[in-house]
Amino acid sequence: MFEGFENLKIHTRDVKFAGVIGGSGPPVLLLHGYPQTHIAWRFVAPVLAERYRVIVPDLPGYGDSRILKAHTTWTKRQSARTLVDMMDALGHSKFAVVGHDRGARVGYRLALDFVDRVCGYTSLTVIPTLDAFAAVDSAFAINAFHWFMLAQPNGLPERLLAADPIGFIDATLLGMAGSLERFEPDALKAYRAAFNDPAVRHAICEDYRAAAFEDREIDAADIEAGRKLQCPVSVLWPKRKTASGSSPIDIWRRWADDVSGYAVDGGHLLPEFSPDAVIEHLLPFLARVTA
Question: Which of 115, 143, 180, 237 is in the most buried spot, having the most CB atoms within 10 Å?
Answer without folding.
Answer: 237
